[in-house]
Amino acid sequence: MTSPYYQLQLKMLEDIAGFIQLSESVATAGQPTPEQFLAIKTSNYDVVVNLALSTSSNAIANECEIVEALGMQYVQIPVAWEAPQLADFECFLEAMKEHCDRKIFVHCAANKRVSAFMYLYRRICEIEERDRATEAEAQKDLHRIWVPNEVWQQFIEKTLNFYLKPN
Fold it and tell me: Is 141 exposed, middle or buried (0-12, 13-18, 19+ CB in 10 A)?
C-alpha cells in the first residue's frame, strides 16, 4: 500500500502536461511550471533534462536557476522542432548515460520531442533492465503523446537506420 504522501506527489506530477512515468528512474512531460519543479524534486528526481529551446512559447527564462536551487542538476539540449538532428540525439544519449544511476525527469514544451527521443533511446540503447521496453511498449508510449509528423518520422527512421544498421 502506498502512502498518502506518495500518492500526493504522484498526483502533483500527473498534473504536469503530458506526464508519463516510463520507469522507476525516468519520467517525461511537457513544460512544468516553476511550482511543479518542487514536486519533481520531492519525488526524488536528481536530474532535469530539457529538450526545448529557450525561445519556446512556454519556456521559463530562469528554469536552470529554479532547478539548481532545488538541488537538482539541469541539462538543456535545445532541439529545433522543425529540424531535429542526429547530433541532438547523441547529446541526449550522453546525458542519459552520464546520469544512468540517477532519477531523470525529461521534458520539452509538449513532450513531443521527448517522446520521440525516449522512443529511440528505448529502441536503440542497452539500458538498465528497469528501463528497457519492447518495440510495442516504446511505440505505445510515443503514441500516448502523438503520432510523429513527417519531419519527426523521418528523423526517427534516419536515427534507427544509423544506430541499428547491420555491421
Answer: middle
**pLDDT, tens digit, 9 for 90 and up, residues 57-88:** 899 999 999 999 999 999 999 999 999 999 99
Q: What share of the chain is helix, strand, coil (3-state, %, to 5)?
A: 50, 10, 40
Q: What is the pTM of this model?
A: 0.91
For residue 12, what are the contacts with CB-CB under 8 A and spacing of at least 6? 36, 39, 43
Cα radius of gyration (the chain):
15
Cα-based distances in Å from 108 to 49, 131, 157, 167: 8, 20, 21, 34
Strand order in the sheet with 73-76: 20-21, 26-29, 104-107, 47-50, 73-76
Start-to-end CA distance of the chain, whole Å, equals: 48
